[in-house]
Design a protein that fits this description.
mainly alpha, 0% strand
Length: 213
C-alpha cells in the first residue's frame, strides 16, 4: 500500500472513530512527509533535536555533520565531548551521541535488527542507550521504521494540540494522553501527525497573525 493510500484509510478510520479528528482534517494543510531513513545518522539527529527549536537543531546539525565525516559511529568516537560541544551540542547531548556510537560499535545495539522486532521490543532496545528516552525512541520508530501505531504522549506540542482540539481546560499529561489515544489504535502515528499539523496550522496561527499584524 502506498503512503497516500495508507493515509486515506487512516483518515477514514480516525474520522469515523473520533469526529474531532474529522474536524481537524478539514482545517489543516496536507500532512508533510516525516519519513527518514533508518540508521545511526538519523537517530543521532533526533537526539540533537531534543528540546530545542528546529532552527537551532538544524544549525547544530550542520556544524556537527560538517565535522564528523563520514557520519559513522567509528568516526563519532574520534571526537571528545569537549570537541562535540564546540559544534553546539550540550554536555548531555555530546555524551548521548558518543554513547549511541559506542553501543553500536560494541554490539549492544543493532539498528538493522530493529525492523524484525515488535514495537515494545524496539522501544526497550532503544531506551537502553544512554540519552534515548521514550520520545526519542518513538520518533525514530515513527519516522525511520514506519511504525503506524506509535504515540509520543510526552510531546508538548502534541499535548497542546490534543487539549485544544478536545477543548480541555488544561493541557493533558502523559497518562491522560495515553487514555485519550486508546480509541485511535491502530493509527496513533497518523493521529499524532494530524495533531502536529493542527498545532502548526490552528493552535499557533493566531499567535503568528498577531505577531505579523
Amino acid at each position: 500500500m502506498t503512503e497516500e493510500a495508507e493515509l486515506s484509510v487512516a483518515f477514514e478510520f480516525l474520522g469515523d472513530r473520533d469526529p474531532d479528528f474529522r474536524h481537524a482534517l478539514s482545517l489543516i494543510q496536507p500532512l508533510p512527509s516525516r519519513t527518514r531513513p533508518a540508521g545511526f545518522e538519523p537517530l543521532a539527529k533526533i537526539i540533537v533535536e531534543q528540546q530545542v527549536s528546529l532552527a537551532s537543531a538544524e544549525a547544530i546539525w550542520r556544524r556537527l555533520t560538517d565535522a564528523v565525516t563520514p557520519f559513522t559511529p567509528s568516526q563519532m568516537i574520534e571526537f571528545s565531548e569537549v570537541e562535540l560541544r564546540s559544534f553546539g551540542l550540550s554536555r548531555q547531548k555530546a555524551r548521548y551521541c558518543r554513547a549511541l556510537a559506542e553501543d553500536i560499535l560494541d554490539g549492544r545495539l543493532t539498528l538493522n535488527g530493529l525492523h524484525n522486532l515488535d514495537d515494545d521490543d524496539v522501544l526497550h532496545q532503544l531506551t537502553q542507550v544512554k540519552g534515548i528516552g521514550r520520545w526519542t525512541a518513538e520518533i525514530y520508530m515513527m519516522a525511520c521504521l514506519g511504525r503506524t501505531d506509535i504515540w509520543p504522549a510526552g510531546d508538548v506540542a502534541l499535548q497542546t494540540a490534543f487539549g485544544h482540539l478536545k477543548k480541555l481546560p488544561t493541557r493533558p499529561d502523559i497518562a491522560q494522553m495515553d487514555v485519550l489515544a486508546e480509541p485511535l489504535r491502530p493509527y496513533r502515528t497518523i493521529a499524532a501527525r494530524i495533531l502536529w499539523r493542527y498545532y502548526a496550522d490552528v493552535v499557533q496561527a493566531p499567535t503568528r497573525k498577531n505577531i505579523s499584524g
